[in-house]
Amino acid sequence: MTDAPLGPRAYSFAAFCFQAGMLLLGMHTIKAIYPGTFDPLTNGHLDLIARGAQIVDELVVAILRNSEKGNPLFTVDERKEMIFEATRQFGNVSVMTFDGLLVNFCREQGAKAVLRGIRAISDYEYEFQMAMMNRKLDPNVETLFMMPAEKYTYVSSRLIKGVFQLGGDVTALVPPLVVERLKAKSTTP
Fold first, then answer.
1. Which residues, other chains included, contact 116 with Cβ-Cβ below 8 Å and sequence gap of 6+?
2. Is residue 24 a part of any domain in this protein?
3. Is 109 part of a structural domain of the chain?
């Protein structure tokens, strides 16, 4: 058994039924934005994407282009490609990039919700502040908080980068294509 998130069939039928029901009832579709730097994409991210895709009709994984998190390991284009490859089995997930205010990007995309992951209490304080500021800037955008599967509660992109750069094994914590890209980066001068 693998630690990777569930495959495409586990969610596609449920998402299809939900979307079909919404259309039949004449209800509006719900589009959400899952923002982040995703440098690199982790199985924790994929867990939230898979579960988030079950809840909303359309989920946009939005890579922040101008992050204040220092020097990125992967370029925005590399991250976009990896996320696209890792999420291609989800029919209602797309990958985009943005810069500037998240609420402006939500308006541009017609999104009514922001999906955010919370691993620990320390995440909650920061995420709560961001959600309140986003609500102040645009009261029509709601924030949905989700917790990752227990086995990923300690996983962060920063931790993955640090462990890998020190020679640690991260294969159970990131998708296989990310492992390949990490290895390629470590052999590049």
1. 34, 35, 127, 130, 131, 143, 144, 145, 146
2. yes
3. yes
As annotated, the active-site residues are 45, 69, 119, 157
User: Taking residues 126-132, what's their average pLDDT?
Assistant: 94
Q: How far apart are CA 118 and CA 40, in angstroms?
A: 17
At 50, is the pLDDT very low, low, confident or very high (cuts 50, 70, 90)? Answer: very high
Residue 21 CA neighbour count, 13 Å, CB half: 9
Number of domains in the chain: 1
Q: Is the dihedral of CA 162, 166, 167, 168 positive or negative?
A: negative
Using CA atoms, how far apart are residues 34 and 45, in angstroms rounded to an integer?
Answer: 9
Structural domain span for residue 22: 8-187
Give per-residue pLDDT as tens, 27-49: 568 999 999 999 999 999 999 99
The CA-atom distances, in angstroms, between 159 and each of 39, 101, 148, 153, 162 are: 11, 26, 16, 12, 5
> What pairs with residue 8 in β-bridges?
none
Which CATH number covers residue 122?
3.40.50.620
pLDDT-derived band at 138 (thresholds 50, 70, 90) equals very high
Hey, what are 53's tokens? Answer: 């895709």
